[in-house]
Specification:
- There is one protein chain.
- The protein has 17 helices and 21 strands.
- By secondary structure, the chain is of the alpha+beta class.
- It has four domains: 150 residues, Immunoglobulin-like; 126 residues, no CATH class; 164 residues, no CATH class; 149 residues, Histidine kinase-like ATPase, C-terminal domain (Heat Shock Protein 90, 2-Layer Sandwich).
- The strands form five sheets. Strands 1, 3, 4, 6, 8, 9 and 12 form a seven-stranded mixed sheet that branches. A five-stranded antiparallel sheet has the order 2-14-7-11-10, with helices on one face.
- Helix 3 packs antiparallel against helix 4, helix 4 packs across helix 11 and helix 9 crosses helix 11.
- The longest helix has 134 residues.
- The protein is elongated.
- It starts with a helix and ends with a strand.
Length: 713
């Protein structure tokens, strides 16, 4: 039953089209412009609408009832069929009034079924600018012996597939195109006047609303001239990408700049958070549309842009209404301007769908609405300045009243104040004397405590040096006596050789020497001497290392900065406090190549010593010792800073202790074990070097101090 109904419908459509075909013949010999929209037959876009050989036989054409041919949004081709009288002259021209189409194809089919392809040229590509306006033109051929023929026009677009068709001569068509070009020139003039006017206002008042508004005017002007096709004709002549995508790009930019302007102009931050969220929603939608364009998703971009424009217009009206209700007077101009633009856009779209008549007013209604909107928004910005001016004047008047009242109060209070000041001055002088005496005592106490801390550090350093030097010295002294005995044995052998008497029995003398050599084991003596000398050399080497480390470390009172090798400072400090290490402590070094740092070397070495001593104390304080504890030393470079990490596996610290460790006199050690000034001194030294120190710690897992020093002081 469905198939039968479908076939009946097809038959009725075919018979109706045949019966009405000759009622729709367009005259191509007139010397005036003729609209072909209502005389056309249309085949909507669908897959397979590509070949003229198939299309001319199609029964799916339907009669147009509007001057505007509107196929909507589609990736496929739509076709227009025209029954036309064959021109008697060579100047008949078919005008396709839509510059944003892909280049149309035009075919002429005569009564003898001969198909001719007619070249279609974009007006912007016509040499020497012979044609005004925008769109496409095709010269209709004069075919001898042919009274009429069918014209097939193939239309495709990445955007809305809408156009109008006209036929006439170049002279008759140019008149309409020149009028359109003049109107767009007038529109561009209005937009540029508003752009320059608001640019000067921005330079004068430095209100960001104006610069955002200038960007909005520029974007909406570029959008309109892209829609009309004048941008491709006059601005980007040979840029195919902009020619194909300028409408989508600048429409999205218009939406973005519009909502940035709305946010700034209406002071959205002062009102509900919902309004800000709506602003950011629209900015995201327009940005998404722009991304679709940049990544080539043309149809998805156009749909997103249209949806964002429609929803954004309603949201803008809602925001303007809410702000106006809150008492912001310039919002009324904004509401009127945005309403006019929305009405103009609706009428422009309704014209394309034949809801309202297609005439000169509806053709240019969008440009009229945008120019009016731009003008009204300029009034709104000017009104905003007037409001700020009135508010400033009122504020100044109130301030003047307050100043006058304050002067009166000041005069009345001056007498009382003079008496009070005299009394307070005497009291302050007494308190000042007391504070000066207290401050002097505190400075002396602080100096004593700092000296005490230095002496404690010096004592620790001295004990470490004594312990470290004692070991290699013992190593040397313990080897001297065996070395002396071995040398004596060698001397005895030498003396026996010196006493050889050639006149006596040499064989017996040599046998006695060989016997003595076996008794003292001469080979063992030689090896032992080498071993003892090696031990003495190692002791001397260790002693030299300790002296060198002491020399490197002992520059505590130097106040001049100089380039210092950080790794050498760490190693020398390790050598001097090595005697305090527990037996299960392992030192882990990770010295990455870093440049020399400009600093006071003695002060930095004091920082290293205090931090390492605290690390050793934290490890020794652990109630349960691991089989192997560690102190990790690491250096690395980040930009123009060098970082030093000193990390231990000690007891760690809770947050309550971590927050106080750099305070003077704060300590977690038992009474008599520390003054609480060590980390305070560390912090002050790092601060004086314009560096920072960070602490990373966790209870029972250890502590890490990270020092950050600038390479150039």
């Amino acid at each position: 039953m469905k198939r039968f109904t479908f076939l009946i419908g097809m038959l009725i459509m075919t018979v109706w089209s045949v019966c009405n075909a000759h009622d729709n013949i367009a005259d191509s010999n007139v010397q005036r412009t003729t609209d072909l929209g209502e005389r056309a037959w249309l085949l909507p876009p669908r897959e397979g609408n590509d070949r003229i050989e198939d299309i001319r036989k199609s029964d799916w054409f339907y009669r147009s009832d509007s001057k505007v041919i509107n196929f909507g949004i589609s990736k496929n081709a739509g076709w227009v069929k025209l029954h036309m009288t064959a021109p008697k002259q060579d100047n008949a021209v078919l005008l396709i009034e839509q510059s944003r189409l892909m280049t149309p194809e035009c075919y002429v089919v005569t009564n003898d079924n001969l198909i001719r392809r007619v070249p279609v040229t974009a007006i912007k590509d016509v040499p020497n600018r012979q044609w005004p306006g925008t769109g496409f033109i095709a010269n209709l051929p004069k075919i001898p012996g042919t009274d009429s023929y069918e014209v097939f026009v193939k239309l495709m677009s990445n955007e809305l597939l809408v156009t109008t068709l006209k036929v006439g001569t170049q002279e008759s068509l140019s008149g309409d195109l020149i009028s359109k070009e003049m109107l767009f020139g007038l529109y561009s003039g209005i937009m540029f006047v508003m752009l320059i006017y608001n640019s000067f206002l921005y330079i004068s008042v430095r209100d960001r609303s104006y610069i955002y508004y200038v960007l909005y005017i520029l974007s909406i002007w570029l959008t309109q001239i892209s829609i009309s096709g004048f941008a491709s004709k006059y601005l980007w002549l040979n840029n195919d990408w902009l020619a194909a995508n300028s409408v989508s790009v600048f429409s999205s930019l218009s939406g973005i700049t519009a909502f940035i302007f709305i946010k700034e102009f209406l002071n959205i931050g002062k009102y509900e958070k919902l309004l800000s969220r709506l602003i950011y929603f629209n900015l995201s939608t327009f940005s998404l549309s722009l991304c679709f364009t940049l990544f080539g998703a043309k149809h998805l971009d156009f749909i997103t842009m249209q949806l964002a424009t429609f929803v954004g217009s309603l949201i803008a009206l809602y925001i303007g209404f809410i702000v106006y209700k809150q008492g912001f007077a310039p919002a009324k101009y904004f509401l009127i301007a945005w309403s006019l633009l929305l009405v103009g856009a609706c009428l422009f779209i309704m014209k394309d769908y034949n809801i309202i008549p297609y005439n000169n007013v509806t053709i240019y209604i969008l440009q009229i609405a945008s120019a009016t909107e731009v003008t009204l928004l300029s009034f709104a910005l000017a009104d905003k300045i007037n409001i700020f001016k009135r508010e400033k004047e009122e504020s100044q008047a109130r301030a003047l009243e307050v100043v006058t009242e304050n002067e009166k109060l000041v005069r009345e209070q001056n007498v009382l104040l003079e008496i009070k000041v005299k009394e307070r001055t005497e009291a302050l002088e007494t308190a000042n004397d007391t504070l000066n005496a207290t401050l002097t005592d505190l400075k002396e106490a602080q100096s004593q405590l700092v000296d005490q801390e230095k002496m404690a550090g010096l004592g620790q350093l001295t004990a470490g040096i004594a312990h470290e030097i004692n070991n290699p010295i013992n190593f040397v002294t313990s080897n001297i006596k065996p070395l002396e005995l071995d040398i004596n044995d060698l001397n005895d052998v030498i003396q026996m050789y010196e006493k050889l008497d050639p006149e006596k029995d040499l064989q017996s003398q040599i046998s006695a020497i060989e016997s003595f050599k076996k008794r003292i084991d001469l080979n063992f003596v030689r090896e032992e001497i080498k071993s003892l000398l090696s031990g003495i050399g190692e002791g001397a080497k260790r002693t030299a290392e300790i002296i060198r480390s002491l020399k490197n470390f002992s520059r505590l009172d130097e106040n001049d900065t100089k380039p210092v090798n950080i790794a050498e400072g760490l190693d020398s400090t390790l050598v001097l406090i090595r005697s305090t290490f527990p037996g299960n402590l392992k030192i882990v070094k990770d010295y990455q190549p870093v440049p020399e740092v400009e600093c006071m070397p003695g002060k930095i070495n004091q920082v290293f010593m205090n931090l390492m001593s605290n690390a050793v104390h934290a490890i020794k304080s652990k109630p349960v010792q691991n089989e192997e504890e560690f102190i990790s030393l690491k250096t690395w470079q980040e930009g123009d800073h060098v970082k030093i990490s000193i990390k231990d596996s000690g007891t760690g610290m809770p947050d309550s202790v971590k927050q106080k460790i750099f305070e003077p006199f704060f300590t977690t050690k038992d009474v008599g074990e520390g003054t609480g000034l060590g980390l305070s001194i560390v912090f002050r030294i790092i601060e004086n070097h314009r560096g920072t120190i960070d602490v990373v710690t966790k209870v029972n897992e250890g502590t890490e101090f990270i020092i950050n020093l600038p390479i150039k002081h």
